[in-house]
């Protein structure tokens, strides 16, 4: 048992250190911000659009954006552009539309002849904290609907609207689709870094209910797509996205399926909304900014609304789906298939359709290349088209061909398939007609330079499909810039490396490829058993020998079950930061086989170097991702630990005057709550099979994550108890002065009030419950915490003073008693052993003596460990209700009454706490074993039902307080009514 205890202590210490290390690593391996700022031509101006709903929502507003000279209100003139509404998110400003709208104005001026322009509107939500208080969401949703109706009246004919939402604004935009009247006027919705299907932190019931309501309504009216155990978006480079497959395989419903939903994520720089939350099962298209053409960088949560590269892509897409009507007004196209193709072009990659035969009239400058690997380039370009024929009828094992063209424009057709024959004039092989293979060419991001044009072809399939073809044709356009191509024909078995990583434990770096050949262009790493978002694998690509000092490697990561999460990274040095880290954005589907469908990493190498490719399990990346993705579990685990500590403290009463009675942290040095973590894993499986209790939260992550978070919570509980002890002992006066400032009471009045509450705690409950009912329950909790802390602080100081006086008196009595007793002892004769044995035995304690000894135990406020735990639970409840309280304080200036989702549970806590203080709890009563079992059950419910739904902790804490108050009341009542029966 001692060995297990020591191991548990080491595990707790290691988990705390790991969590702290993960926090430090969050900002280490992050790429620098490469976004360019967006500048305006003129002064940004916002014209207020006034309508009837402004009276109902006095703190909200609708604005029209323009630049330069002041214009009249849009209500006084008919608008002609295609309407776009920007919806800000959590604490977002309506002025964040400046970058989007300014780029659109510039583009409209540059293409004035087309007559296409956009009208940007933006909504002022008073920078409300909608991500932490769900009561805002319903108000904002209603106002957004009013704004859409108002904007429709500004145009001669109904014009479909595009909504662009940032952060929680994207969720608001998605939620308006649940209104059939509004949804028919929505053309497309673009969400930027939005938690679409679940919130980042579910802190109150209203926020959780908002997500549930939206999901329920969309499930009935819009087609959803979820990955299955056979989904693999990496099988082919040309496989359609899930949403595109769905759109092609069924007829669209006339309403919601005709609305194009596009979601985007910021990548590893976004520490507020991780990538896995930014996609939705109702989306048509998802893309990460690092994979979007002409962006190819990661955006943090705020820069996503001003990053110039990203703003240009969004506006290019909007202009591509806009059409000008005969009356000079501009509308967005209602053809979803056409809009979807445009979205794929701008947000995923340019995907030109396969073209027909092309006639080649040139008969000069034709050559044939027979080598398997070659790097051919022309330093000063070529004067006329250069034609290179590459035979495809090779050895049977050579099934793959990788080819890259240098400095070729993206629209240029440079790769063809053809049937070659000898020319009568030059006696060389030529092709009269050829089929362009532009649709097989990838445009790979290449840092700040032009994208790389690379094609990886399957020669076996080409020979089988196009039996008449004899060659591939590389056609380099004329120009003065350096041009050429790299060719690599190889056996795919030699270029595919299979890697299997463990769930957690792996040490050391392992070699995947010891040395590549000179001229190698492509390698593929297939990674199995990478199934959870916290796992991290670091891949090292080290150049061994290069023909030139500068090189570039493009890495493409594809997760087979997560469409739209492709990630690109360019490597230019072996010690580059961030390194090449492999991880998945979401948990893999159930019963998914990663051996058949592994995570794929394609490495497009620079052929001027030879490389060594190795990999290692990255603990730093794994720990940082645990912190980033699972920090929201900490409140639930901390409450669970406090409940277990409270359970262990119930029947532990220290003797008054002992040194242990001064230590309020007794009971926190425990590890038994770890049993509950493993037990809940088994109980969850039982609940899912038996189905007697509500279904637990679907958090099917490794138990390693739960243990790290729980051990961190144990460490935090110890630190919190020690901090509370120091605050009680040394900073009581500081909190007293702070309470005077908050309550604005004089010292004499506060002393009288505190004395009344100490001797008659029922007044404590009446006051705090009155504040909760009259204002907000969070303020009642704040007053309760302050007065409870001051009462406990005064009690601790009195107890400490009594302890010190008692010890001083004992020392004085011992010193004086020793001097007087020495003479008396010298006169007495020693007592023999026989006399000692003949002394009668001490009589047993009577009932009155036992009662007297019980009265010497620390009960009531003197049982400091018990009350410190209750005080910490009250503090947790206060923090959980902080966003609601802050929202109430902000809304009071506008006279708006927001709902309090935790009113009844908080009143229960306040009433129970006042009753416990009135009864001088805890008392030495019977029945603690039953209460300890119930608290153990509550702790288990926390782990099963409250890790993601954090707001449920309010009900668990309230239930625990009510159980304590009920047990103390019932125990005291039974002690008075039936004392003989209980004895």
Distance between the amino and carboxyl termini: 36 Å
DSSP summary, beta strand count: 32
The Cα radius of gyration reads: 36 Å
Count of runs of 4 or more consecutive helical residues:
28
Which structural class is indicated by helix and strand composition?
A: alpha+beta
Fraction of helical residues = 40-55%
Strand count, sense and barrel status of the largest sheet are: 8 strands, mixed
Mean pLDDT: 86
Question: What multimeric state do the chains show?
Answer: single chain
- Low-pLDDT ranges: 237-254, 822-855
Assign an overall shape. globular
Strand order of the largest sheet: 1-2-4-3-5-6-7-8
β content, as a range? 15-25%
Task: Give structural attributes.
6-stranded mixed beta sheet, 28 helices, globular, 983 residues, alpha+beta, 8-stranded mixed beta sheet
What would you note in describing this structure?
It is a single chain. The chain has 983 residues and is an alpha+beta fold. It is 41% helix and 17% strand. The chain has 28 helices and 32 strands. The strands form 7 sheets. Strands 1-2-4-3-5-6-7-8 form an 8-stranded mixed sheet, sandwiched between helices. Strands 11-19-16-22-14-12 form a 6-stranded mixed sheet, with no helix packed on it. It has a 5-stranded antiparallel sheet with strand order 13-23-15-21-20. Mean pLDDT is 86; it is low at 237-254 and 822-855.
Topology overview:
Blueprint: H1 2-25, E1 44-49, H2 53-56, E2 61-67, E3 82-87, H3 98-110, E4 118-124, H4 135-152, E5 161-166, H5 168-175, H6 180-183, E6 186-192, H7 205-221, H8 242-249, E7 260-265, E8 285-288, H9 308-320, E9 322-324, E10 330-332, H10 336-348, E11 358-359, E12 366-369, E13 373-378, E14 386-391, E15 400-406, E16 415-418, E17 421-422, E18 429-430, E19 433-436, E20 442-444, E21 452-458, H11 459-465, E22 471-476, E23 483-490, H12 492-495, E24 496-500, E25 510-513, E26 522-528, E27 537-546, E28 553-558, E29 567-571, E30 580-582, E31 599-604, E32 609-617, H13 619-630, H14 634-649, H15 673-690, H16 703-730, H17 732-743, H18 747-759, H19 762-774, H20 777-827, H21 833-838, H22 847-855, H23 864-880, H24 882-892, H25 903-918, H26 928-945, H27 953-977, H28 979-982
Parallel strand pairs: 3-4, 3-5, 5-6, 6-7, 7-8, 12-14, 24-26
Antiparallel strand pairs: 1-2, 2-4, 9-10, 11-19, 13-23, 14-22, 15-21, 15-23, 16-19, 16-22, 17-18, 20-21, 25-32, 26-31, 27-30, 27-32, 28-29, 28-31
Helix pairs in contact: 1-13, 1-16, 3-9, 9-10, 14-16, 14-23, 14-26, 15-16, 15-26, 17-20, 19-20, 19-25, 20-23, 20-25, 23-27, 25-27, 26-27
């Amino acid at each position: 048992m001692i060995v297990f205890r020591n191991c548990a202590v080491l595990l707790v210490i290691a988990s705390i250190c790991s969590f702290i290390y993960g926090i430090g690593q969050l900002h280490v391996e992050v790429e620098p911000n490469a976004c360019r700022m967006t500048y305006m031509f003129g002064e940004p101006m916002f014209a207020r659009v006034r309508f009837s709903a402004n009276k109902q929502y006095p703190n909200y507003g609708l604005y029209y954006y323009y630049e330069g000279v002041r214009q009249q209100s849009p209500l006084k003139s008919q608008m002609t552009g295609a309407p776009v509404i920007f919806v800000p998110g959590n604490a977002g400003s309506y002025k964040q539309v400046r970058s989007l709208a300014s780029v659109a104005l510039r583009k409209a001026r540059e293409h004035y002849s087309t007559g296409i322009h956009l009208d940007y509107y933006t909504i002022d939500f008073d920078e409300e904290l909608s991500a932490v208080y769900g009561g805002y969401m319903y108000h904002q949703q209603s106002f957004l609907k009013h704004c859409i109706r108002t904007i429709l009246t500004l145009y001669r004919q109904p014009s479909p609207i595009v909504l662009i939402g940032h952060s929680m604004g994207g969720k608001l935009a998605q939620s308006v689709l649940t209104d059939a009247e509004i949804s028919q006027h929505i053309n497309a919705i673009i969400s930027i870094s939005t938690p679409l299907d679940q919130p980042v932190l579910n802190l109150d019931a209203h926020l959780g209910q908002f997500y549930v309501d939206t999901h329920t309504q969309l499930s009935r009216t819009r087609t959803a797509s979820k990955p299955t155990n056979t989904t693999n978006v990496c099988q082919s480079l040309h496989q359609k996205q899930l949403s595109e497959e769905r759109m092609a395989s069924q007829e669209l419903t006339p309403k919601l399926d005709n609305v194009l939903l596009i979601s985007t994520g910021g990548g590893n720089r976004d520490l507020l909304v991780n990538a896995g939350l930014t996609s939705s099962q109702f989306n048509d298209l998802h893309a990460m900014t690092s994979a979007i053409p002409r962006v190819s960088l990661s955006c943090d949560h705020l820069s996503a609304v001003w990053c110039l590269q990203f703003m240009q892509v969004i506006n290019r897409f909007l202009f591509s789906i806009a059409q000008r009507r005969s009356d000079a007004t501009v509308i967005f196209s209602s053809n979803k298939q056409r809009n979807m193709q445009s979205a794929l072009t701008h947000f995923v990659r340019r995907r030109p359709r396969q073209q027909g035969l092309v006639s080649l009239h040139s008969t000069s400058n034709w050559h044939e290349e027979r080598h398997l690997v070659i790097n051919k380039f022309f330093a000063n370009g070529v004067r006329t088209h250069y034609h290179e024929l590459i035979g495809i009828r090779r050895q049977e094992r050579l099934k793959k061909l990788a080819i890259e063209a240098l400095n070729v424009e993206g629209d240029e057709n440079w790769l063809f398939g053809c049937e070659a024959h000898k020319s009568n004039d030059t006696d060389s092989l030529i092709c009269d007609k050829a089929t362009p293979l532009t649709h097989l060419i990838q445009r790979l991001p290449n840092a700040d330079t032009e994208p790389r044009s690379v094609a990886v072809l399957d020669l076996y399939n080409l020979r089988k499909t196009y039996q008449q073809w004899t060659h591939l044709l590389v056609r380099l356009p004329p120009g003065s810039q350096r041009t050429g191509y790299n060719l690599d024909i190889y056996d795919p078995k030699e270029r595919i490396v299979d890697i299997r990583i463990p769930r957690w434990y792996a040490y050391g770096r392992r070699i995947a490829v010891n040395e590549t050949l000179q001229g190698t262009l492509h390698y593929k790493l297939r990674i199995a058993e990478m199934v959870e978002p916290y796992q991290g694998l670091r891949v090292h690509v080290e150049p061994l020998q290069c023909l030139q000092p500068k090189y570039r490697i493009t890495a493409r990561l594809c997760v087979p079950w997560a469409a739209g999460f492709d990630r690109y990274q360019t490597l230019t040095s072996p010690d580059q930061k961030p390194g090449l880290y492999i991880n998945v954005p979401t948990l893999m589907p159930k019963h998914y086989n990663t051996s058949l469908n592994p995570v794929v990493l394609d490495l497009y190498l620079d052929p001027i170097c030879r490389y060594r490719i190795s990999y290692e399990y990255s603990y730093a990346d794994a720990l940082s991702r645990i912190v980033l993705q699972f920090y929201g579990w900490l409140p639930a685990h901390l409450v669970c630990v406090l409940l277990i500590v409270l359970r262990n403290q119930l029947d532990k009463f220290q003797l008054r005057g002992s040194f242990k009675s001064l230590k309020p942290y007794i009971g926190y040095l425990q590890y038994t709550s770890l049993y509950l973590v493993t037990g809940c894993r088994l109980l969850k499986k039982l609940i899912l099979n038996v189905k007697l209790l509500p279904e637990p939260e679907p958090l099917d992550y490794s138990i390693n994550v739960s243990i790290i978070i729980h051990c961190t919570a144990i460490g935090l509980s110890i630190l919190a108890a020690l901090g509370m002890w120091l605050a009680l002992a040394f900073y009581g006066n500081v909190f007293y002065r702070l309470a005077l400032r908050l309550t604005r009471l004089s010292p004499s009045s506060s002393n009288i009030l505190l004395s009344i509450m100490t001797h008659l705690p029922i007044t404590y409950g009446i006051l705090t419950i009155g504040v909760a009912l009259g204002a907000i329950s969070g303020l009642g909790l704040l007053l309760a915490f302050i007065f409870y802390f001051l009462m406990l602080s005064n009690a601790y100081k009195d107890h400490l003073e009594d302890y010190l006086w008692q010890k001083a008196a004992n020392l004085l009595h011992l010193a004086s008693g020793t001097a007087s007793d020495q003479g008396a002892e010298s006169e007495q004769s020693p007592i023999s052993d026989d006399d000692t044995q003949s002394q009668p035995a001490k009589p047993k304690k009577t009932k009155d003596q036992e009662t007297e000894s019980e009265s010497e135990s620390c009960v009531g406020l003197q049982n400091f460990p018990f009350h410190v735990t209750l005080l910490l639970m009250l503090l947790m409840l206060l923090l959980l209700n902080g966003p609601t309280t802050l929202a109430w304080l902000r809304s009071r200036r506008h006279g708006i009454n927001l709902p309090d989702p935790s009113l009844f549970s908080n009143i229960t806590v306040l009433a129970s706490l006042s009753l416990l203080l009135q009864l001088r709890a805890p008392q030495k009563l019977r029945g603690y074993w039953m209460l300890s079992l119930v608290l153990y059950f509550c702790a288990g419910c926390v782990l099963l039902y409250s890790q993601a739904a954090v707001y449920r902790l309010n009900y668990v804490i309230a239930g625990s307080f009510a159980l304590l108050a009920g047990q103390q009341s019932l125990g005291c009542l039974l002690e008075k009514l039936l004392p003989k029966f209980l004895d």
